Inverse folding.
């Protein structure tokens, strides 16, 4: 799937193109959180964003294209990884960020809607995979730093460590429905750290 983009010359920081995209991304996120992927409608998004329907249909073509761009936008706006000098604290910060996002009254339903869309639409799945690849690569840097400091064995798969932190948190939200709080976040981070120290994530 290809999402239509304006030519580079038409895009400038703070220009109309950027303002339109920002408004549409906000409106799309609100609509997804409220109605889910099945209820997402480009005309409704255009109305919420106070943007002409023609502009939305021309640039994003369909709801899948809109969701793909929304995920790209979310990756761009995501909080950068922490750098506390301690892998335990960095992993706990990551886990707590995931918990806050999933418990947020807007972001939580939004992520659930996107994940639901990805289960039945290949293009939405590809966009979701790209989003998480970006976030995992960002946070893997704290594991790289820990290896350099001698906290972890050389050859540790940094991406697997980060995946291990968030996996039990998403399981609670999507599968078991168990409570999700900071204590759970810290336990997930500590478990991933213990496994990494035991060389469970050797490449």
């Amino acid at each position: 799937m290809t999402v239509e983009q304006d030519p580079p010359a038409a895009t400038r920081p703070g220009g109309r193109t950027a303002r339109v995209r920002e408004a549409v991304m906000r409106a799309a996120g609100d609509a997804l959180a409220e109605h889910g992927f099945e209820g997402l409608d480009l005309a409704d998004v255009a109305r919420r964003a106070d943007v002409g329907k023609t502009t939305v249909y021309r640039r994003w073509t369909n709801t899948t294209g809109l969701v793909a761009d929304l995920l790209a936008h979310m990756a761009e706006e995501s909080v950068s990884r922490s750098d506390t000098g301690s892998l335990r604290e960095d992993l706990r910060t990551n886990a707590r960020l995931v918990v806050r996002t999933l418990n947020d009254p807007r972001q939580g339903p939004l992520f659930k809607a996107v994940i639901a869309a990805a289960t039945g639409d290949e293009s939405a799945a590809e966009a979701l995979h790209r989003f998480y690849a970006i976030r995992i690569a960002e946070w893997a840097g704290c594991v790289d730093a820990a290896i350099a400091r001698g906290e972890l064995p050389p050859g540790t798969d940094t991406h697997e460590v980060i995946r291990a932190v968030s996996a039990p948190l998403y399981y609670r939200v999507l599968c078991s429905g168990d409570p999700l709080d900071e204590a759970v976040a810290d336990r997930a981070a500590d478990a991933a750290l213990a496994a990494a120290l035991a060389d469970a994530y050797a490449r």
